Amino acid sequence: MSFSRADLDRLAAILADAAEAEIMPRFRSLEDGGIREKTGALDLVTDADEQGEWRIRDLCAKAFPQALFVGEESVARDKGLLARIGGADLAIIVDPVDGTSNFAWGLPLFGVMAAVAAKGETVAGLIYDPVGRDWRKGLKGAGAWAESATGRTRDLAVAKPGTLSEMTGLSSWYLMPEPQRSRTVANLAKTKACFNYRCAAYEYRLIADGLVHFSLHYTLMPWDHAAGVLIHQEAGGFSALLDGTPYDATKHEGGIVSAPDRATYDLIRRELAG
Fold first, then answer.
1. N or C: the chain end with fewer CB closer than 10 Å?
2. Mean per-residue pLDDT for 9-22?
3. 120-129: per-residue pLDDT in tens?
């Protein structure tokens, strides 16, 4: 099943609607009990996550009635949804508030993300910043672009490759198991600088914009990576799992590196993740 530029714009309108109706009114205004822990203090869910997702789900059911809907909070209730992505002609994969901890703490570093997959292969990606009201968008084979709140667009392009000591990167190393965690943290000192914003939406924006050279992540939930990897690739970048296999939305473990090109990917995997 194809997914057109018009379809992408329709999905973008749904995300923006949910952000305006359910997410932004709760930013820095969550009521008592509006923040809850999932597995720990850094794994949170808020009323904005849930109500935002239910609105996106309901609007997608009307706009794309034949699509499988897979949201982070929906999977929390029905983990079987993940296994259905690979067989779906069209799956809409949504993170209603990516960077929930930042959102809950009142930090304006969060985003709304959606990817569209056909038989597990990502064909479209959206990253929306509801604070700045701007976008990063991508369609497989059609490129990736930034879009401002006024509708102005510009093409995205990843950073130029460089020496490891001059490259900047992004890594959620704290999610890695030992001994990989300690080894990776030590290796990151080989770079010029490495950051972590606890928000895949912002991190993929930075590498797709060419402001940061690479990202190294361990967990692979599709709502965190499918949209960003597609946008980064359409901006000229290269992504693959740590074992060298291509990424797609059906793969949920193994770690991933995104870099300007294959040679830089090989360098990052060897020097930082090895």
1. C
2. 98
3. 999 999 999 9
The total number of residues shown for the chain amounts to 274
* Burial class of 161 by CB neighbour count within 10 A (0 to 12, 13 to 18, 19+): middle
**Sign (positive/negative) of CA torsion 239, 241, 244, 248?**
negative
Number of helices and strands in the chain (H, E): 9, 14
Closest listed residue to residue 124, CA positions, set 92, 89, 81, 95:
92
Tokens found for residue 27 = 């930013």
Separation of alpha carbons 145 and 134, rounded Å? 11
Residue 240 near residue 256 (C-beta atoms within 8 A):
yes
Closest Cα to residue 112, out of 128, 135, 93?
128
Helix, strand, coil abundance in the chain, percent, nearest 5: 40, 25, 35
Contacting residues for 41 by C-beta, under 8 A, at least 6 apart: none
Please, which residues have CB within 8 angstroms of residue 215's CB and are 6 or more apart in sequence? 169, 170, 171, 203, 204, 207, 256, 257, 258
Alpha helices by DSSP H, the chain: 5-18, 47-63, 72-77, 80-83, 100-104, 180-187, 200-208, 222-234, 262-271
Q: At what angle do helices 200-208 and 222-234 cross, to 10 degrees?
A: 10
What's the half-sphere exposure (Cβ side, CA atoms, 13 Å) at 59?
18
Model-level pTM greater than 0.90? Answer: yes
3-class secondary structure, 134: strand
